[in-house]
Amino acid sequence: MKSNLLIKGAVASLALCLTFFGMPSQSMAQAQQAQTQQTQRPALPDENTQARLVWSTLIALDNANRTGNYEVLHSLGTDGFQRQNSPGRLSQSFAQLRQNRVDVGRSILSSPTYYQPPTLLPDGSLRLRGGFDFRPKSIRFDLIYVSSGGGWQINALSIVEMDFDAPR
Questions:
Q1: Fewer CB within 10 Å of terminal CB in the chain, N or C?
Q2: Is the pLDDT of residue 13 over 60?
Q3: By residue range, what is the domain housing residue 32?
Q4: DSSP secondary-structure letter at 122?
Q5: Which are the contacts of 18, defined by CB distance < 8 A and separation ≥ 6?
Q6: How far apart are CA 97 and CA 155, in angstroms?
């Protein structure tokens, strides 16, 4: 009889535990979902990584302009970037830099100046906007990257040569 009471007590305790701990409430599920979203959102990369992203993108563009082959620049992009920007379209987009023989590669000789602080956008993508303030002409960039597989891929890019004194 005593063992039956112990068994009934254990069953009741187990049922009580399942009620409180085994079945998550909606607020617990929401908290878990928020935590998952936070862990999926990338952290803002450090200053060295930001500079490396800018330099590697500008070097890829410089090589593409020098060779006329935009395949590598195209391949560095996200799937969406690749769908919207064929190598031919990239060639057209940067034709003026190529025709003016702008040495985009010289950018690796100095650190980028950010005209807006590097920012994670609401969708988790990284925006780097700034330039290399050479005289008389500066190289300006506006780059958006998406975190993918532990690295960053180009999602949008604008790179132009402007007068040093042009508004930033």
A1: N
A2: no
A3: 2-39
A4: T
A5: none
A6: 20
76 falls within a domain: yes
Pairing of strands 137-148, 151-163: antiparallel
pTM: 0.73
Question: Residue 39 and residue 36: Cα distance in Å, rounded?
Answer: 5
pLDDT of residue 150: 87
Q: 101 and 33, same structural domain?
A: no
- In terms of domains, do 154 and 83 share one? yes
Give yes or no: residues 91 and 53 share one domain: yes
Distances (CA, A) of 88 to 27, 65, 121, 129: 51, 12, 29, 25
The DSSP bridge partners found for residue 159 are: 141
Do the Cβ atoms of 145 and 128 come closer than 8 Å? yes
Q: Are 158 and 139 in contact (CB under 8 A)?
A: no
Residues 111-118: what's their mean pLDDT?
Answer: 94
In a domain, 168, yes or no: no
Please state, in angstroms and rounded to a whole number, the distance separating the CA atoms of residues 154 and 158.
Answer: 11
Average pLDDT of the residues in 16-45: 51
Alpha-carbon span 59 to 65, nearest angstrom: 10
55 and 25 share a domain?
no
